[in-house]
Amino acid sequence: MIHRLKVDEVVEESPDARSLVFADPGDDFSYRPGQFLTLRVPDERGGSLARCYSLSSSPHTGTALRVTVKRVPDGRGSNWLCDHVTAGTVLDVLPPDGGFSPKSLDADFLLLAGGSGITPIMSIARSALAAGTGRIALLYANRDERSVIFAEALRHLAAEHPERLVVLHWLETVQGLPDAAALRALTAPFADREVFVCGPNAFMDVATEALATAPGRLHVERFHSLTANPFEQDPPTAAEDAAGGWATAHVEIDGDRHRLDWPRRQRLLDLLLDRGIDAPFSCRQGACSACACRITAGEVSMERNDILEQQDLDDGIVLACQSFPVTDEVHVSYE
């Protein structure tokens, strides 16, 4: 489902980062701390782009929904949003998604962020402080002091929760590039906590090496570039459908049961949407879990999977946006 959200305010968080604050989208637009939105961005070369940006707001503080966008060199999406979006701009947005979210806000957390990776980390920190009971240590790495996104908000949170929040800054201009040994030493007093890491790949590699002793408690958010536009998916032609043959899908969703002829060259999600069935989805690229469903009988093959673990696969969980039929009959449940 595509939502049209109006921007109420644009907030400058740093010289190269902006927060887009949206008008109230309604009660059906719920989200969890650490999730992201997929935005449709006009492309100056024609058509549109789909770009994912993390929510920096918290669903537990009563504040407005917001995403934070940092400019990327030659980034067609981020630069357009930072240069052209103003109060009153309306954007097409897919529902919130992503699994980078704590199961409980009452845990003690160690949060590590590099650069714009602070965005989902900020959502988690705000939520845990507002609705949880645990303690938080937040380590934030940047190039220099001017690069620090949410600098004032972090100072305010630390002053408001002195017994629960510790904020540690790492500045490359002062301390050099962070390495595993240095991060391990800094985070040692908090290493037994639930750990969330987000930032550039190099930072996350160093952070995960530093915290390799806590694999069961370590959660890493890695963003994948979308290779196609979920707002502009082209359905297969009738000739392509006929050439590939057909299977039968038995789908249980929202209390209803559907029996559908399924072209073997069509993805399950596309089949459902084409038939007017309101199946959940977000990225349509196999990089999130919004479209996950369970295969209760039969078999499918997935073209791509960047999110499901082996235990999920063993339990029959698949991504509808990447699933093609293997057997003649496939039973699918969203219940």
Describe this entry's structure for a reader.
- With 335 residues, the chain is an alpha/beta fold.
- The protein is 22% helix and 32% strand.
- It is built from nine helices and 18 strands.
- The chain has helices spanning 76-84, 118-131, 151-160, 172-175, 180-187, 201-210, 238-244, 268-274, 310-314, and strands at residues 3-14, 17-22, 36-42, 48-54, 66-70, 90-93, 109-114, 136-142, 165-171, 194-198, 218-221, 246-253, 256-263, 292-297, 300-302, 317-319, 323-325, 329-333.
- It has a five-stranded parallel beta sheet, sandwiched between helices.
- A hairpin with a 5-residue loop joins strand 3 (36-42) and strand 4 (48-54).
- The longest helix has 14 residues, at 118-131.
- The two termini are 18 Å apart.
- It comes from Saccharopolyspora gregorii.
- This is 3-ketosteroid-9-alpha-hydroxylase reductase subunit.
Gist?
By secondary structure, this protein is an alpha/beta fold. Helix content is 22%, strand content 32%. The chain folds into 3 domains: 3-93, Elongation Factor Tu (Ef-tu), domain 3, CATH 2.40.30.10; 109-221, 3-Layer(aba) Sandwich (Rossmann fold); 244-333, Ubiquitin-like (UB roll).
SSE layout and pairings?
Elements: E1 3-14, E2 17-22, E3 36-42, E4 48-54, E5 66-70, H1 76-84, E6 90-93, E7 109-114, H2 118-131, E8 136-142, H3 151-160, E9 165-171, H4 172-175, H5 180-187, E10 194-198, H6 201-210, E11 218-221, H7 238-244, E12 246-253, E13 256-263, H8 268-274, E14 292-297, E15 300-302, H9 310-314, E16 317-319, E17 323-325, E18 329-333
